[in-house]
C-alpha cells in the first residue's frame, strides 16, 4: 500500500465521502477532524464509524488551527498527498461568528501549507467554493473570470485560501489545486443545508422559509460526483503554464504550479423545483413561507466545468432527481422516519 494520504475534515460531509473513495481504490488514509459542535457531533461520529470499520483508515482528533499539533503530524507522516477539506462551514454563520472563519479557514490553511512546504508534499488539493464568484453575475461561472467581490466572510476566507496557495506555489514550488464546489448535496449531508432543513421540516409538519420567493437557481452537485472529481484532480499534479502572461493574467492558471477548477453539475435548478422534488420523494407537501432575498445570497449559480473535463476527463453527471431521492432514502433510514 502506498504512503497515506492526509484528508482533513474526514468526519465532515465531503471529507468522509472522499476518504471512502480513496480507500475504495486501495489508498490508505489518515483523517484529521476536531469534531466540533457546529452541528450535531453524533452525525460526524456516525460517518466516522463507517470509515473506521474499513482497513486503511485511521483518525487523528486534531484542529487544523493547532499549529504545534499539525507540525507534529506532518513531521511524523510526511504526507506525499494532502486533501484539505476541513473548514468552518456555513455562509450565514459567518455573520454571527466571523472569527471562527479566520481561525479555521485562514490560520488552519496556513498550517496545512507550512506542513506541505516543509515535509515533501507533492500535491495539495484543497476546497474552495463557488461562493467566491460573489457579485460576478456572468454565467456560467468560469475559473478564468475575476473573483474580487465576495459577498460573505466565508467566501472571502475561501478566496484567501486561493491567494495563499498561489504564494506558496510561487515561492516554494508547492503544487496546489483549489476546487470550487457548487451546492453539494446528498446522503450524510450537513443539517444546515437546504435539502436537510427542508426534508426535516416537511416531515415534522413545520413550515420552510424560502428566500427570494424561490426564484433563484443553484447548481446542485451530487456528493459522489464531488468525491470522484476530487480524487481525479489529486492524480493530476499541476505544472506552471509557460505561456501565462502577467500582461494579461489568467485567474485560473499561473506560471507557478497552481490551478483552480470548478466542480459543478452545470445544470442549475430553480429552488422551487428542488422543493417539488423533495415533496415528491417524501409524499408530502411543504408549508412554504416566502421571504425576500438576503444580502448574502447570490441570485444564481452555474458552473463551467470545461477545464475539469479537458484536464481530468470528468464532469459531474448525477441528475438532481436521482440525487434528491438518494438523500431522502438515506435520511429516512438514518433517522427512522
Which key terms come to mind for this protein?
alpha/beta; 41% helix; 7-stranded parallel sheet; two-stranded parallel ribbon; single chain; 16% strand; 337 residues
Would you write up a description of this structure?
The protein is built from eleven helices and 13 strands. The strands form four sheets. The chain has a seven-stranded parallel sheet with strand order 3-2-1-4-5-6-11, sandwiched between helices. A two-stranded parallel ribbon has the order 7-10. The longest helix has 21 residues, at 98-118. The chain is globular. The model has no long low-confidence stretch (mean pLDDT 96). By secondary structure, it is an alpha/beta fold.
Number of strands: 13
First-to-last CA distance: 41 Å
Low-confidence runs of at least 5 consecutive residues: none
Structural class: alpha/beta
Largest sheet: 7 strands, parallel
User: Number of helical segments?
Assistant: 11
Strands side by side in the biggest sheet: 3-2-1-4-5-6-11
Radius of gyration: 19 Å
Question: What is the residue-mean pLDDT, rounded to a whole number?
Answer: 96
Strand residue percentage: 15-25%
Give a quick summary of the entry:
With 337 residues, this protein is α/β, with parallel strands linked by helices. Helices cover 41% and strands 16% of the residues. The strands form 4 sheets. It has a 7-stranded parallel beta sheet with strand order 3-2-1-4-5-6-11, sandwiched between helices.
Amino acid at each position: 500500500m502506498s504512503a497515506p494520504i492526509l484528508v482533513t475534515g474526514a468526519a465532515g460531509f465531503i471529507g468522509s465521502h472522499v476518504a471512502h473513495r480513496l480507500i475504495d481504490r486501495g489508498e490508505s488514509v489518515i483523517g484529521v477532524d476536531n469534531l466540533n459542535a457546529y452541528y450535531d457531533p453524533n452525525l460526524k461520529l456516525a460517518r466516522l464509524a463507517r470509515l473506521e470499520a474499513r482497513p486503511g483508515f485511521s483518525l487523528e482528533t486534531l484542529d487544523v488551527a493547532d499549529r504545534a499539533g499539525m507540525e507534529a503530524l506532518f513531521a511524523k507522516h510526511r504526507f506525499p498527498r494532502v486533501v484539505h477539506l476541513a473548514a468552518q462551514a456555513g455562509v450565514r454563520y459567518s455573520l454571527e461568528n466571523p472569527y471562527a472563519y479566520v481561525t479555521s479557514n485562514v490560520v488552519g490553511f496556513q498550517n496545512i501549507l507550512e506542513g506541505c512546504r516543509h515535509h515533501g508534499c507533492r500535491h495539495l488539493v484543497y476546497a474552495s467554493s463557488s461562493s467566491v464568484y460573489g457579485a460576478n453575475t456572468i454565467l456560467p461561472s468560469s475559473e478564468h473570470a475575476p473573483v474580487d467581490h465576495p459577498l460573505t466572510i466565508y467566501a472571502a476566507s475561501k478566496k484567501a485560501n486561493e491567494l495563499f496557495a498561489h504564494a506558496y506555489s510561487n515561492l516554494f514550488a508547492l503544487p496546489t489545486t483549489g476546487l470550487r464546489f457548487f451546492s453539494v448535496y446528498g446522503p450524510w449531508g450537513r443539517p444546515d443545508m437546504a435539502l436537510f432543513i427542508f426534508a426535516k421540516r416537511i416531515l415534522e409538519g413545520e413550515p420552510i422559509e424560502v428566500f427570494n420567493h424561490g426564484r433563484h437557481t443553484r447548481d446542485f452537485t451530487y456528493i459522489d460526483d464531488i468525491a470522484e472529481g476530487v480524487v481525479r484532480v489529486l492524480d493530476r499534479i499541476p505544472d506552471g503554464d509557460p505561456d501565462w502572461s502577467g500582461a494579461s493574467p489568467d485567474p485560473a492558471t499561473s506560471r507557478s504550479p497552481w490551478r483552480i477548477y470548478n466542480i459543478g453539475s452545470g445544470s442549475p435548478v430553480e429552488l422551487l423545483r428542488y422543493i417539488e422534488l423533495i415533496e415528491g420523494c417524501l409524499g408530502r407537501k411543504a408549508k412554504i413561507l416566502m421571504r425576500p432575498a438576503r444580502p448574502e445570497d447570490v441570485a444564481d449559480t452555474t458552473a463551467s466545468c470545461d477545464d475539469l473535463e479537458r484536464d481530468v476527463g470528468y464532469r459531474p453527471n448525477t441528475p438532481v432527481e436521482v440525487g434528491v431521492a438518494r438523500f431522502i432514502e438515506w435520511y429516512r433510514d438514518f433517522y427512522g422516519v
